[in-house]
Specification:
Layout: E1 13-19, E2 30-31, E3 37-38, E4 46-47, E5 67-71, H1 75-84, E6 90-93, E7 102-108, E8 112-115, H2 118-121, E9 129-134, E10 148-149, H3 154-157, E11 162-164, E12 170-174, E13 176-178, E14 221-228, E15 234-247, E16 258-266, E17 270-274
Parallel strand pairs: 12-17, 13-14
Antiparallel strand pairs: 1-5, 1-9, 2-3, 4-5, 5-8, 6-7, 6-9, 7-8, 10-16, 11-12, 14-15, 15-16
Pfam family, one: DUF4438_C
Organism: Asanoa ishikariensis
InterPro entries: DUF4438_C, DUF4438_N, TM_1086_sf, TM_1086_SG_dom
Amino acid sequence: MAVRSNADRLVTQILTGEVWPALADRHGYRVDADGTPFLLPGMGGVTLGVHPGDPATGYAADHLEPGLSVRHRDGDANMALQFLSCVGNTVTVRTGPAAGAQGKVIGQHAYVLVDLAEEELAQVSTGDQVTVAARGQGLRLLDHPDVVAKNLDPGLLDRLPVRTRADGRLEIGVAARVPAIAVGAGAGMVSEFANTDLMGAYAGQGDDLSLGLESLRIGDLVVLEDSDHRFGRGFRPGYLTIGVISTGHCRLFGHGPGPSTILSGPADAFHVVDDPDACLGGLL
């Protein structure tokens, strides 16, 4: 049965931001889990060639942010952009050669991350203005009161591999199951802000660091076991969180590909199904 929601009661708010430049300081280098210094592209700017459905790991990159990295230069307005932008929201480029191009929010990190078609992405520059048609915070699943939805455009909900089962549970397909020990940076923060970095996907950095997550793709739906993201982010046995992988490869210890939270609640409220096709690459 289709999942019923209060989508008809949600409002759309137009938010503004700009494509933020990549940043660094004069020291440049960081250090990976084995103490090896590195200097690699990562957060900010416009990142070409990585879209939902593409691998999240294996790049010569650190804290890889696909597509556009968007924020607002006013601190309070930027937090509103973070809190209210939802995965699946439509983003429109308003200035520069790519003006008029539209893409989708694929998650949050230090920035709101936006996927565009590659040919349009290549025309965007830092400083270009964008608008986000923010809709989704306040979404409720009417037949699943124990499941908290957040950061999720209701239009995307209708395309996700979800349904209400005859036994009342919410069935959802995921491309990967993530053990609680993989949760790194992001724990303890509010789950409407940034994402949760996953350890154990340090491709090429030794088998002793692997948790079998090297095959993650940008846009994958994943389940975080024993994780409660309803009112923050923390370890709670018997709870599950569903997220969308929005960031990619990272060499910093305790960091890694990161899911943005979309659903969270008691494990017995869900029926999780392994589905290798559960990825935004085929949905957006």
